[in-house]
Design goal:
The structure holds 2 protein chains of 2 kinds. Chain A is an all-alpha fold. In chain A, 68% of the residues lie in helices and 1% in strands. Chain A has 19 helices and 2 strands. In chain A, a hairpin with a 5-residue loop joins strand 1 and strand 2. In chain A, helix 3 packs antiparallel against helix 4 and helix 4 packs across helix 6. The longest helix of chain A has 43 residues. Chain B is mainly alpha-helical. Helix content of chain B is 70%, strand content 0%. Chain B starts with 8 loop residues before the first helix and ends in a 6-residue tail after the last helix. Classes of the chains: A mainly alpha, B mainly alpha. Chains A and B meet through helix 1, helix 2, helix 10, helix 11 and helix 12 of A and helix 1, helix 5, helix 6, helix 7 and helix 9 of B. Chain B: Belongs to the binding-protein-dependent transport system permease family.
């Protein structure tokens, strides 16, 4: 790509060392050395170009790059426990993982609970532990209320009497994990892993293993959708590229109209079509293909996600394929035929390889867009058609486990950025076309 | 596309299969968009065509769902339709308010994205632009990064991007910020977010227009004595205007169709059309949604037609295709 980019070559040439001028240097009309005058004027031109871009760059950095950075920070930072439970956090730091909580630990806990209850931060603390051990938020708030009047030593007995859950090793493990503000635990959890009593990384309990499965499903469904868009997009792009301009411009509108139509409208349309009481099932019943009681379940499952997303992403496959196919000289195929190739061989050996740049561009773009899709799976995916984005949204809006959402988002972001980098290498973002 | 005369019978069969296949795919592309239009005139609250509609009985059709769009959320929907009824609809009807919000947010975010994006595209198209590739990658990334990630980041940023409303700068900005002086739950926040999402489209369309731009026109203007500003407004701007307008339309559509960022960073006051649709679809999907969908399809047809006209005009202006 770099070799093809004339701008890069010019910039590299301009920033290179000035040519070696030993004997009688060339000068401008006012007597300055020509090389220096040129370098100065080129620097000025670079500055001018950069100044035009600067406002937007600053804007995007503030409204986009910094927020993403903040999200990445959030994915490894959560001080909900560490900041409001200082004494018990300190106990965890002094004692290695695996130490049984002793009377000092319980004394620190009782003192922290009282302070947190007085400062009304006990809810934050409870919420933080609740991410790891469901149902513990109320444990903290109720014990906090009792702590206000003060526990009497021995604290261990007093706390366990207040609620036997305080003796639960799982709870202490969760508190230890939360006792440092900077933590990799959310990333571990996002990969279905956790820390055991010794602080070693182990697999999470089987019934809590959901994320790796969701990442795999996102990957598989995205690949499948990329493939179906290829299957449907290739013939259309070929037709558009080979028809006379007038006809293909007309048909192009049929491709561009879905592209311009609201995403929510298209998703709603598929809900209407695919429902059990919807149009397609009605037609099938009317044709007698299926029985009225045997209506097909085509939506609120993976099938719904695949159909609707294929439809939505199809233009992103067709447009790059079309722009490459249009440049393929038809005489290549004719030459292959005249040399004795069958039409299938001519297609396979001559035409198809020439379409590969467009196919690569389209497939990468569709795949990149598919792995991050949220709206369509949320509306038509049911429970089996949900992707990783839906899990991020769930943690953001329902469980309010924002660090978890941020960790999942960071992993997804990493994958997308790698794909984006590949896209830029292979296709070049300059070649991105919109209709 | 015509079949060559030397085609074998098998190739003829394949040719017609191929045509049939393409027709089927075009139906797949267009049918969902077309089917919502008649269904929005359904007299029954169903998503399927009842007997009466299929037999073109006028009783099977009605405008009731379009009426619902006006009356939903009004305080006195059943009152006689006089001036006060319309005032009620204007102030209280949920879809009317959503449309107003969508237009406000769309308008300002488009202006912001178009002005900043066009300036940047001019800079990026200059051959001497330094770090071109990486800057371009950053500016396009809001389009590539999944919207859910962008919205998550913005949620954190907007709830922490606060000013002290007592200070000098804070007092100046206070009317645009929420009561606590933050960007979350404000029009300004949504406008900034949507501008960010629209910028890649402006950059792409305007740089595409500038590819065929003849720089010697600018030099000619300068040699004839025009200063840079005059050169820009009299020479460059008219030539790249079609690209700028299609970029602006793309940015507007992006904002007009955006729901995830709105869900994450907007407050109840910034209810937009997509958010209202989202709520409608998730709670109780009624044919009123189809009425909105129909209006939006008509809107997108109008936009598509505009962009196509602009594109052809731009290609003609730049001499890329015959008139």
């Amino acid at each position: 790509m770099a070799a093809l980019d004339p701008h890069a070559a010019v910039v590299a040439g301009a920033s290179g060392a000035a040519p070696d001028v030993t004997a009688a240097p060339l000068t401008t009309a006012d007597g300055r050395p020509l090389a220096r005058a040129l370098a100065r004027s080129q620097a000025r031109a670079r500055r001018r170009a950069f100044l035009l871009v600067l406002p937007l760059l600053a804007f995007v950095i503030i409204t986009f790059v910094i927020p993403i950075g903040q999200m990445l920070h959030r994915s490894m930072y959560n001080d909900g426990f560490a900041a409001h439970m200082p004494q018990v956090s300190a106990w965890f730091h002094e004692n290695p993982p695996g130490t049984q909580p002793d009377e000092t630990a319980f004394a620190a806990l009782a003192a922290d609970l009282k302070t947190a209850a007085d400062d009304r931060t006990i809810g934050i603390v409870g919420t933080r532990i609740n991410y790891d051990v469901p149902g513990t938020r109320s444990l903290f708030t109720s014990t906090g209320r009792k702590a206000k009047s003060g526990f009497q030593p021995p604290y261990q007995a007093a706390l366990v009497e207040a609620d036997p859950k305080w003796g639960d090793p799982q709870l202490w493990r969760a508190m230890r994990n939360a006792s440092t503000a900077y933590t990799s635990n959310f990333y571990l959890a996002a990969l279905d892993r956790t820390r055991d009593d010794q602080g070693k990384v182990v697999m999470a309990p089987e019934r809590q293993q959901v994320y790796v499965m969701l990442f795999k499903r996102t990957l598989l469904l995205s690949l499948l959708i990329t493939f179906t868009t290829f299957l449907l997009g290739f013939p259309i792009a070929h037709l558009l590229a080979t028809l006379p301009a007038r006809k293909s411009n007309l048909l192009m509108i049929l491709v561009l109209l879905p592209f311009w139509t609201s995403l929510l409208v298209r998703t709603t349309a598929w809900m209407v079509l695919l429902q059990q009481q919807g149009v397609i099932n009605d037609i099938l019943v009317w044709l007698g293909i299926i029985d009225s009681n045997g209506r097909l379940q085509m939506i609120y499952n993976q099938m719904g996600t695949i159909i609707a997303m294929t439809h939505i992403l199809l233009p992103f496959m067709i447009l790059p394929l079309y722009s490459v196919m249009r440049t393929i000289n038809p005489s290549y195929v004719r030459a292959a035929r005249s040399l004795g190739a069958t039409s299938w061989t001519a297609f396979r050996r001559v035409y198809f390889p020439l379409t590969l740049p467009g196919l690569g561009a389209g497939a990468l773009l569709v795949f990149i867009l598919a792995v991050g899709y949220y709206i369509t799976p949320a509306l038509v995916g049911g429970s089996t058609g949900q992707l990783i984005s839906n899990m991020i949204a769930m943690h953001m809006t329902e469980t309010l486990n924002w660090s978890m959402a941020a960790a999942l988002a960071a992993i997804l972001l990493g994958a997308v950025l790698v794909l984006y980098w590949i896209y830029d290498r292979l296709v070049g973002i300059d070649n991105l076309k919109l209709g | 596309m015509a079949l060559p005369t030397y085609a074998s019978p098998l190739e003829r069969v394949w040719h017609w299969t191929y045509i049939a296949l393409c027709v089927a795919i075009f139906v797949f592309l267009i049918a969902p968009i077309i089917v919502v239009i008649p269904l929005s005139f359904n007299a029954e609250p169903y998503f399927t065509f009842p007997e009466k509609m299929l037999s073109f009985d006028p009783d099977g059709y009605s405008m009731r769902w379009y009426d619902t769009l006006l009356t939903f959320g009004m305080s006195r929907a059943d009152a006689p339709r006089d001036a006060s009824w319309w005032a009620d609809a204007w102030h209280n009807a949920k879809w009317v308010n959503a449309a107003k919000n969508s237009l406000i947010v769309g308008f300002f975010s488009t202006i912001l994205a178009t002005v900043l994006g066009t300036l940047a595209a001019l800079g990026l198209s200059r051959p001497e632009m330094p770090f071109r590739r990486i800057i371009m990658a950053i500016l396009i990334s809001p389009m590539i990064v999944p919207i859910i990630i962008t919205a998550t980041g913005m949620f954190f940023f907007y709830s922490s991007a606060c000013v002290n409303t007592g200070s000098g700068l804070g007092r100046l900005l206070a009317p645009m910020l929420s009561n606590s002086g933050c960007l979350a739950n404000t029009y300004l926040g949504v406008i900034l977010a949507h501008a960010t999402l629209g910028i890649p489209f402006v950059i792409i369309t305007v740089t595409a227009t500038l590819i065929g731009f003849d720089q010697s026109l600018n030099r000619a203007a300068a040699s004839l004595g025009a200063n840079p500003r005059r050169t820009f407004f009299r020479i460059t701007m008219p030539l790249i205007l079609p690209g700028v307008i299609s970029g602006a339309l793309f940015a507007f559509v992006t904002s007009f169709d955006e729901v995830v960022a709105v869900l994450f960073i907007a407050g109840p006051d910034q209810q937009t059309i997509p958010r209202q649709m989202w709520n409608g679809i998730r709670e109780q999907i009624s044919p009123a949604i189809l009425a909105v969908a129909t209006l939006l399809v008509i809107f997108s047809i109008a936009l598509l037609a505009t962009v196509e006209v602009l594109r052809r005009r731009s290609e003609r202006l730049r001499g890329l295709s015959p008139a």
